What we know:
Elements (H helix, E strand, L loop, with lengths): L2 H18 L4 H14 L1 H11 L6 H12 L9 H9 L2 E3 L2 E3 L1 H14 L10 H11 L5 H12 L5 H17 L35 H12 L1
Antiparallel strand pairs: 1-2
Helix pairs in contact: 1-2, 1-5, 1-6, 2-4, 7-8, 7-9, 8-9
Amino acid sequence: MSKDAKILREIAEALRKWEKGGDTAVDTARKVITLFVDNLGLVRSVQNEYGCHAPLERPVSWLRDIARKRETINSLSFEAWWTEFTQPQLWAGERLSVADQCEEWASRLEGRKSQSIKAPSKDAIRAYLLLKSLGCSQAKAAEIMSGKLKRTLTQGCISRYKTQCERWLKANGLDVFPPDIRPDIPRLSPDKLGMGARTDGRRTGDPRHKRSANNEADE
């Protein structure tokens, strides 16, 4: 583990300890701020290079601002900021905390040494996000992507995209794609998110499936 990655993981560990509260919460919070003070350049560098998940930008920015004002460390209202700094925030279907962000940055730094797995293309990531964030079936994702790209993508292609993305995330120690490489995904209305027929024999709420079931009953 690199020195910078180790520092970021130390900050993440302190944040998680702060989250638990207890009699040592104030001391732990002061440790978090001190770590940010001592490593402000590192935090600024990784945030600029790798980005920061949207809901986490404010608490991370506040921590950086606090870290610049060393004279305020002993008078901070740690309890008032506990929720903002330690609790997970919802982003793109995932709940992420500042500690998660620090660990993600650490994983990205460690991943620099192992670039054997090429990062997926933006199309591959879009397809993966359709599956994971919107819950599309592979067939539906292929249909949506084909319409957006004006070329035919098969379900097999979507399956390969999914495998590529999962391998890259695992190799980099990540659960979600970082904002610096995460593309936008198509905005879709609920009526366009039909998931196709279920494979487990159960019915879905799609009226087309109800009609299909009625036709089968008539036969």
